[in-house]
Amino acid sequence: MWRAVLQAILVFSFIKYQPVDYGNEQYPLWADLIGWMMPLSTNLPILVVAVLVVYHSQGNTILEVTDYLLPLRVPFSNYKNK
Hints:
Shape: elongated
Order of helices and strands: HEEHH
Low-confidence stretches: none
Number of strands: 2
Strand order of the largest sheet: 1-2
Helix content: 55-70%
Strand content: under 5%
Largest sheet: 2 strands, antiparallel
């Protein structure tokens, strides 16, 4: 759930982007680009893998996507003390 929230924040940041300024002075374009590359370098691989998993899934794509989004359910009997 929190991953989806962070991805949404990144997307909304792209949509509502304004150049960074400090008082009356604007930062240079290269500084903005470096600032955008840092979150993209961690989020882009997640998005690429998610798209590839959905693309290569067989069967009903909607069911596959919901199956990947749900947490893994392990029976409680596997956690018994030995």
